[in-house]
Amino acid sequence: MTYTAPCHVYTAGFSFHRKPFHMSRADGVQNYLLRLQTEGRSRTRIDGELYSVEAGDLMLFAPNDPYYLSIDKETYAAGKPRVESGDYHIFCGGPWIEDWWGRKPRPAVLRLPLTEHFLGLFRQLVLEQRRLSESSPEITACYLQILCMEIDRLMTQQRAISPKGYLAYRMKQYVEEHAAIPFRLEDVAAYADISVSRAVHLFKEAFGTSIVKYVNDVRLEMARERITFSPMPLEHVSETCGFANYTYFHRLFRGRFGMSPKQYRTYSREQM
């Protein structure tokens, strides 16, 4: 049976430039291009005007779109001018990509949060393309589709929040990505580059709950799933869900679900 991928990754890679780099294609690129600036800075041309591309900017180009990229010396904080630019780039195509692209307007440059989850999708696509054996076009196509759908979700979220809300959203992402390990309020605030007091205020204003309560809610949901679907000992569930000790976890779990973790495991499996 021949597999026909709904979308194709023609090339995927990561580049880090320490020397000037320039590319100009008036006739555009041949395929769809997703280019994520991860470090440093570059420049592109949009409607004839130069545009600075910063870390977190995603460049989106369709076949035949004029493409311009320039990487030169830039002045960064407390340093001499230097060339420094890192990016993931994916050239892709296929009927699924064409359909996805046409679902909504695609800006040439889109600012998105550089979360570990989002970066991980680019990283995984690059790793799949580098496989010399056991490569799978099915897996590559699935990763590409997930990446594109994640871009749409992030686009929707970004339009719906204010600049202050953006900081709260970054903190919320930090909590969700690090919930399984212990961390402090200072770590959450530092991720958004703000003070702890401002972090607490902005989070409460944006989501109507405290950071601590949201952390515990996320961890309790993780624990509930593991209690139901894994054979993991309850003390291990508590530990791997980020709780400092089992007594604290037990008290929070009973308060949230109305029964102890042991009782919930018995109840949930009876319902399956």
From TrEMBL:
One of its GO terms (molecular function) is sequence-specific DNA binding. The keyword DNA-binding applies. Residues 169-267 form the HTH araC/xylS-type domain. SUPFAM superfamilies: Homeodomain-like (SSF46689), Regulatory protein AraC (SSF51215). It comes from the Bacteria. Keywords: DNA-binding, Transcription, Transcription regulation. PANTHER family: ARAC-FAMILY TRANSCRIPTIONAL REGULATOR, HTH-TYPE TRANSCRIPTIONAL REGULATOR EXSA. This is AraC family transcriptional regulator, arabinose operon regulatory protein.
